[in-house]
Structures are given as structure tokens and as C-alpha cells.
Amino acid sequence: MDFEFDKIPHIEGIEALHGAYNEKDVPEKDTRTFETRMSEHNKVIPTLEEAITKCGLKDGMTISFHHHFRNGDNVINQVMDVIAKMGIKNLTLAASSLQECHSPLIEHIKNGVIRRIETSGMRGPLADAVSHGLMDIPVIFRSHGGRAAAIETGELHIDVAFLGAPTCDPYGNANGYNREGEEGSCCGSLGYAKLDALYADRCIIVTDLIVRYPNTPFGIPESQVDFVVKVDSIGDSEKIMSGATRYTKNPKELLIAQMAADVIEASGYFNNNFSMQMGSGGASLATARYLRE
Asked: Exposed end of the chain (fewer CB within 10 Å): N or C?
């Protein structure tokens, strides 16, 4: 069958040669090193205020934090101080837990910066003040699993998540430990922060140590991070083991822990590479110590 080339759409606009060769038409090769290109195109923002502005945080929105540093956390107070100076008000604070170190939040509640709180725990002066009528709207308490479920279903919608990470690269790959030889904070797994990073409309990683790309293995991937902000300190690791996560010496708690370890050992599941989850509390954490032995 004969084929009629003149019936091919736009055939007249196709040529075998687009003019004579001209080296000026050839794009110049990018000879910059990967490290140089990485430093010029990344997610690092110089200040919290600028990152908050870029995220579009406004009155009435919901912000979230994790509590891996527990009573050594420096992130929530830093961020809330900046937000207060920016004049943003009526926020919902959705932290996974609030500790004694977060007592400065009392003033932010009184000044109208924080209107509501949703959390899994609250301790110290803040808890005492709330218990005595500090807030007009009751605090919503959820279990850690319930909080994760509420985020996943949209019952708890997060507009901006501020997640402290001991290490992060310029593109947002973050984890909770330090590579050998690096100085900085350390808080362990970023498990509580994973749902915040995944479902929040915007995610800001707050870190005190930016490392070379790629920061692997990561707890939070760069695909879930909008901006990275470096601050002087995100937390004090030495204060993680305090309060509910203290290193107990109480004879009663140690007896309970020893019995619990004996039960686990006899359960049939105590094998190499088995997994377990320990809650907070002296007896619970002491159980892990006995299992190690």
C-alpha cells in the first residue's frame, strides 16, 4: 500500500538538519562539583522566622512537635518565642508530649498565641496551670497510637510540623543520632515524628548539626521536608532520662522489672532479632536492662 507523506501532521516542520553547526548554540558544561551544587540548591533557611513565613503560618492554624528529647527539649520554646514575636495567635499546639521544661508555654497561652492543645501527655508547671483553669478550651489527650491514628485519618490536621533532628543534610534527610566523630545532640529513633512529617502540609526540620548529603540511613526522608533550619541547640540528651524515663533504683520497681524479664524470657519469643516496645516508667525501662543481661 502506498503511503502519502504529505498527510502526516506537521511533516513540513521537520528537517534533517537545523542549520550549520555553531558552538555558541551548545550549552556550557556544568563543571561544578556535586558538593558545590548541593550547597547552592538546598532547603536550608537561615532563620526560623523566615522558614515560618515561607510555610505561610497564620492565625488559627495547627502546629506540631515531637518529644524525643523529653525534659531536655529546646525546640518548642524556641519556635513558640519566634511565633509570638511574629504576632501569630490562636494556634493549636499538637505536641506528642509536653514536659516540665515547657513551662514557658504558660505565657504564650495567656497572651493568646496558643488557644488549644492536643497532646499525649503533660507534666510540670504547665500541667498544674492547665489543671487550675488556665485554658478556656479543654486539652485533648490521646494515647501515642491514638494521636498517630488521628493524624492519619485527618481528625488532627497539622498545618506546619516543627521536628527537631540531631542530624540533617541540606536536603532534609534527618535522623536521631550522630555519625561517629560528629558533635551534637542525640535522641534515638524519630518514630513519634514520622506521622507528623508524612501528613503535615509543611514540615520544617530544626537541627543543630547539618551533615553532608546523603544523611543515610534516615528516619525522615527529604521528600517529606520543606525547609531545614539550623539553631544553636535542639536539646540536651542528658535530660532524656528523667521523670518517667528515669534510671530507677526503687526496689519495688526493680522487682517488677525482674519478674517481667523472666516472663519475656520464658514466652518463646525471646530469640535473636526479636523486637519489643518499652513504655516509659522506671519498671518498664529496667525490664530492658534485665533482658540485656
From this structure: N
Paired sense of beta strands 167-168 and 174-175, if any: antiparallel
Tens of pLDDT, residue by residue over 3-38, are: 665 677 776 766 666 566 677 777 777 787 776 776
Same domain, 171 and 263: no
**Alpha-carbon dihedral 139, 140, 143, 146, rounded to 10 degrees:** -160
Distances in whole angstroms, Cα of residue 125 to Cα of each of 90, 108, 130, 235: 21, 14, 9, 19
Is the residue at 178 inside a domain? yes
Domain hosting residue 211, numbered range: 44-239
By the 10 Å C-beta count (0-12 exposed, 13-18 middle, 19+ buried), 243 is classed as middle
Q: Are residues 155 and 252 located together in one domain of the fold?
A: no
Check whether residue 151 and residue 284 sit in a common domain. no
Tell the burial category of 242 from Cβ atoms under 10 Å away from its Cβ (0-12, 13-18, 19+): middle
CA distance 121 to 147: 11
pTM of the model: 0.77
Give strand pairing partners of 227: 204
